[in-house]
Amino acid sequence: MSQFEVLFQVVAPATGALSLLTTALLLGVRHGIDWDHIAAITDITSTTAAAEAGEAVHAEAHRAGAPSHGHGGVSELATHAVGLDGAELATMGPRSVPFTRSRFFAEQRRAIFLGTLYALGHALVVAVLGSTALLFGALLPDWIDPIMGRVVGVTLIVLGVWVFYSVYAYVRHGTEFRLRSRWMLVFSSIRYAWRWLRAKLHGHDHVEPVETSSYGPRTAFGVGMIHGVGAETGSQVLIIAAVGGAASVGLGVPMMLAFIVGLLISNSAIVLLTATGFVTSQLRQRIYLVVGVVAGLFSLVIGTLFLLEAEAVLPDLSRVFEFLGGGN
To answer: Where are the domains of the chain?
Structure first.
């Protein structure tokens, strides 16, 4: 046997393993730029930036002369209305609060932090599904993906309807335009339903607290986990596990980790782009309004397609990013 043949036998397995790991990495990057990921991350970063602006407006109202008071629903709004001139309170918005570089980076950091938590929550589910597949050969039931797709579609439609309602209120009544997270709309609806039920049981209304309209760390992480159950994540992990097990013994776990790293890379890139875009859009209220309308239209279209199980008509992003690996 020649020295070349010996060298080939030594290098070939290592080269094959590296090729499989690279394929898994690129497949993870490819999966991270799917439509459902883009919609979810845009949802988180946009509503986080909007809530930060709203909190700045609230603080400005205090500095402008609203008397000291407890925080809670209608009573707080009434106190602000007394402390400030009505026209001034109605027109106060993000543009009335001085925009500083320190506030810009503070808002950007929070949006990026929460978007990253979404990606980590998604990656955790990928790891659990992949480990289950590797250890037990378990498969997700076929009925999981259609149900999760419909759930995502409904929440996207709710978000889109809310955005256009907010635009109508802004144009007709001059109220502040603020994006709301579709998941926070769902959670708010549950809280209001629970509050209504308690009022019926106790025979009187309870004080309505001021609800936050942005994601918290646990919510962002949880939404990432919810999205990890459907939207083809399970099938992609199982493909990686199968390829790793068939091609080289012991490569299943490394390939799964490579897939997760690729997923985090692409999701982080989307987080950075969308967080910067939505934070800077607050520099001008009209730009922010346009961005919100585009996001609302995007949510309605994508949500309807998911609800009707017609997401196949969406452009195949793998053709746009062919260098990131093969299709699904």
So the answer is: 17-56+103-201+218-324
